[in-house]
Amino acid sequence: MNRRILTLLVALVPILVFGMLLSAVTVPFVGLGPGPTFDTLGEVDGKEVVDIEGTETKPTSGHLNMTTVSQSDGITLGQALALWASGRDQLVPRALVYPPDKSKDEIDEANTADFKSSEDNAEYAALSYLKYPAAVTVASVSEPGPSAGKLQDGDAIDLVNDKPVANLDEFTALLKATKPGDQLVVDYRRKGGDLGTTTITLGDNPDRDYGFLGVSVQNAPWADFTIDFNLANIGGPSAGLMFSLAVVDKLTTGDLNGGEFVAGTGTITDDGKVGPIGGITHKMTAAAEAGATVFLVPAENCAEAKTAHEDSLTLIKAETLTQVVDALKAHSAGRETPGC
Predict the structure, then answer these.
(1) How many CB atoms lie within 10 A of CB 256?
(2) What CATH number is associated with residue 203?
């Protein structure tokens, strides 16, 4: 072997080693970037994203797209460098996305609870905006438990032992006057218009000295139709605002978006307050690439949103559901809207 070939081989060794490191070594970072968007007025896999059954819905047009952030986990050193160099994605420490003190099952369970809470809040905020009256509403039924098979999520409780319960305080006061083993006769309304009466034998719970009914309840606006959100854990709590807007649009005459392509993001409380989210600049990029012309930005994200420089998007500041509906109507009419 001559000296030139030997020199070449020696020079190639660190290059080969570095190449192996790039492709084989994983780094403790997660890549974040623009994710897919979904039209809450449209369909996914043959199902309406916001499916309302049991009442008349109005025709809609245009788009009300919720936006997401993509995540790349388990990335190699080479992939991390490529993401960093792209200028489109960012790298964040993995511990910020997947806390090391929690197992995957714990994280999945917390995410599922967040999705369910977000959907409930979106429904309640929309129904409240539409002036549906409040009722003592069953949020969940313990399985197993005294009420399993007798009450269902979404039931409105009207009477307990023939005594009206107009709010959560009245319901709780009646329950606190019981003891384990007592029987309660509960009159309820169920989605779809059914009225029912059921007798429930109270159980016991070490956290209280009164009878255990085995349900969680809340004061919430109630309607006799059902609202289902069919995105299977996509979007998380940040989809709340767009879900609420879709419900309002489908239950009212006219188009909230004026037939335009509106996208946005934001958490929502059951009384309609819009909250901040993460990844706003990635979501704006996703919206612009999907064709949106208007983007709804939670008020607390406005400062960050202005750094995205997505000039094709008209930004509308979102503080409450009522304010956003009014702003969209103003935009459709060519009037000034609250911007970031």
Answers:
(1) 24
(2) 2.30.42.10
